[in-house]
Amino acid sequence: MATSEAVEKYLARHQDKDLLRFLTAGSVDDGKSTLIGRLLFDSKRIYDDQLEALQCDSATYGTTGGPDPALLTDGLETERNQGITIDVAYRYFSTDMRSFIICDAPGHEQYTRNMATGASRCDLAIILIDARNGVMPQTKRHSFIASLLGIQHFVVAVNKMDAVDYNHETFRAIRRSYESFAAKLRISNIHFMPISALNGDNVVTRSSQMPWYQGAPLLSYLETVEIATDRNLIDFRFPVQYVIRPDTEFRGYAGSVVSGNVRKGDEIIVLPSRRRTRIEAIETFDGEQPEAFAPMAVTLRTTDDIDISRGDVLCHVNNVATVGRGFEAMVVWMADSTMKLGSNYLLKCGCATAPVTIEEVRYRFDVNTLARERFEAGTGELVVNDIGSVRLTMHKPLVFDPYAQNQALGAFVLINRVTNATVGAGMIRATQSESDLRPDATGGPVSKNITRVVPLVQNHERHGVLGQRPVTLWLTGLSGSGKSTVAVALENHLVNELGRTAFVLDGDNVRHGLNRDLGFSPHDRTENIRRIAEVAKLMNDAGLIVITAFISPYRKDRSNAAEIIGPDRFREIHIDTDLAVCESRDPKGLYKKARSGEIRGFTGIDAPYEAPENPALRVPTDSLRVHDSVARIVEALATGGFFASS
Q1: 323-436 has which CATH code?
Q2: Among 174-188, 318-332, 506-520, 544-558, which is the least confidently predicted range?
Q3: The domain 459-639: what is its CATH number?
Q4: Phi-psi region at 370: left, alpha or beta (left = phi > 0; alpha = psi -120 to 50)
Q5: Domain 238-316 class?
Q6: Which tens digits make up the pLDDT trace of 291-338?
C-alpha cells in the first residue's frame, strides 16, 4: 500500500510539472546536436538500449573518438553521413522540476524553412555560436526568425570554448557582437553562457575551466526560467476544431483555449457571424469544469442552438478578434518558386482556410544588417529563405489577431493550391477589419463623377481680413507628454490675448466623432492622421491657425500629413518628454493598463514611437512649464511671419 501511494504521488507530481519547449539554432557545425546529446547524456536521461545504440553508431559515424552525442538527434542516415542536421529533430525528457520538448533545428541556410517550422511553438531559443567563428550570418537569420515568431527568452550559448582555451576575452567579444545585432530585435530576455558541449562544460554541471563565469549551468537555467507570464490570459479565443453531435440531446464544440479564459455562464460572440450566446457547460476528459483557460482542450456547450462550425472563433463580447479580408504580415518564404504579386494561395490560420491573393510585397530584410530593401510599386517578390513584409487579401472574411497579441490566431501558413505544399509562414502585424476596406489614402477618390469648385474668395484675401497667415502646428509626442495641455493653452493665448483666429484638433475629441470608426492598429492610425490632415488643410484654406494634438507615432504618417497640408503651412513640433516622465504622469491611467496587458499596441510600451528627426521646434515639457512652452511656440510663429497681415 505504501509503495502504491508513493508511486501515485510520484506520478501526480510529474503530471503537474511545467512544460518548456525550446529550440536549438545557429550556424552549421556550431554544435546544436552535440549540445542536446550532452544534455541528455549527462543528466542520465538516456535509456540503456539508446546508450548501446549510441555506442554502436559512434563506431560507424562518430567524429569524437568516443560516444558522439550528436547522433542522439541526427537520426537520418543522410545526416550521419554528412555530419549535419537536415530535418527538425525532437527529443523529450524530464527532470524533477520541469518537462522539456527539444527542437533541434538545422543550421544550413538551405534548411532555414525547417528551422522556422520548428521554432513556431517554442518558448525559448538557444542560439549556439562557435567560439572560433563568432556571430555568423545564419546565427543572425535564426535569431531574427525566432524573434519574429515571438520567442521572448534567448540563451546565447558560446560553444567550443575548449577550442579557444576557455578564453574570457573571446567570450566577451562575441557577447558584444551579438548584443550589437540583437539591439535591433524585440527580445525581452537574453542570457549569455560559455559552454563546451563536447566536454560537458556548463551544460549540466558548472565548469572548473571557466571560473570567471559565475552563472548557473544550462540545465539549471532551463529548469528555472519563468515562462508562465508569457501566456495571454486576457483575450479569450477559442477556435472551433470539431462539432460533436453524438445524438439529438448533445451538441458541443471541441477545441483548445488558445488564449484567455472562459467561465460557465459567460456571454460569448461567435465570429465571423457575430451571433451571441452563453456558455452552458465546459466539458473535459475529467468531467464538467466551472472554467477553462489556455492551453486547455475542452468541449463547450452553449445555451442557444446556433450555427457554429469548424473555423469559427468564440470570444467574449467585449473583447473580440478582427474579422477582415486583409492584413499586413511578415512572411518567411520557404518555396523554391518565387512569391510574386497577384499570386494566389490558400491561407490557413487557426482552424480556418481561405483563398488569398498577394497584393503587395513592400520590402524584404537584409538579415545581416536588418535593413529594409524596399521595392518599387508592382516589382516586389520573395525567393526561398527571404523574409519580407507582404500585404494580402483574402477572398472571404477570416478571424485573426496581430501575432504580438495572439500567436495562435496571428500565425498562418501559405499553401500551394496545386501541390498542397506549404510555401510560406507568416506573422500578422497590422490587421484590417471589414470596416477598414476603404480606398488607398494615397490614391484618388472612389467616385469619378466629381469636379472641384473654384471659390471666388482667394486665400490672400482671407489672410488680409484675419491679419494672419494660416499654419498647422502639428504637436506630436508620447501619451502624457503634455500635447493637449500645451495645445489648449496655446489656443487660449492666441485667441484671447493676441486676437488671432485659432482652433485645436485634439486626438481624443476627434475620435468621438469624425474618426469614431477607427481603432489603433497601424492601418487605423494612418487613416486617422490622413483624415485630420485633410481637415487641417480645409481650416488653413479658411485662414485659421490650426493646432493638432496627436501622438501620430509614425514618421511616414506625419510626412504624408505635411504633403496634404503643404510644406509652407506645416510645422512639426515635438513635445519631447522622456517615457519615464510620461508614465509617471499617466493622466488617463493608460500606461498602467498597458503594463498589465489590458491595452495592446500602446505607443511606447509594445508599439513604437518614431520621434521627429528634424522638427521645426522641440518643446521639452519635462523641463518647461506650460506658460514657457506656449511662449516658445508663439515666438516661433512671430519669427516665421505668421502674424503678418499679408
Answers
A1: 2.40.30.10
A2: 506-520
A3: 3.40.50.300
A4: left
A5: mainly beta
A6: 998 889 999 999 998 889 999 999 998 888 988 888 889 998 988 899
